[in-house]
Specification:
The protein is an alpha/beta fold. Helix content is 36%, strand content 20%. Helix 3 runs antiparallel to helix 6. The radius of gyration is 17 Å and the shape is globular.
Amino acid sequence: MVIDVNGIELHWDEIGNGEPLLWLHGGMGCGADWQYLFKEPPAGYRLIAPDLRGHGASTNPSGTFTFRQCAHDMHALLRHLNLPRVKAIGVSGDGIVLLHMATLEPTSIESMMIVSAPPYFPEQARVAQRQFSEAMLGAAEMERMRARHTRGAPQLQQLFAMVHEMAETYDDVNFTPPLLEKITAETLIVFGDRDPLYPVSLAFELQRAIARSHLWVVPHGGHGPVFGDRAPQFTSTALAFLRGEWR
């Protein structure tokens, strides 16, 4: 499905039936990446899986990208779907989108899981952003990138440029404690203790500032420590949290 919103064509899929659950893929990904975690739509949920601007089948004619703008896009999608309040999962950069959604319109997010999402970019992340290239990803990941993003080489070039620009941007990802204190959603913060981009100390900063928050540090976990062999544990933990069992 596609709607025109905020100067872009925003594509999303809906899978399953039940309570709405907003799934926000990681940077350079697409909505269909939910399949790397849930082998099938989680029972009892209507999974809403958008492609963020410039990703997957969604367009981004201006070429500009901020996580804050993506949050405005997602709020517009929720209004289009007549959903004033949802539960949500966001991975990496799209966990940042959720932080923006939960601070811009706190009542829109009932509960959320943010995976490997920092309150700000530390210097080691900015170094990686400046150096980001096809060579860093490797041939296999580039094939997956081409399959996800159907608009060809110009779209991929735009995405790489997006990451490079993040390295020199300081106002978009700058969640101070007073800003995080606006969040009313029950929040599960998930971090790997060996994330090469974001030290686990950032997770503790988030947990201290967000009132109704829980922290899950994944031992020996890197960036996005919820995929591959860890996916089943994440799935069971996520569904228990979303059901309210962590209260």
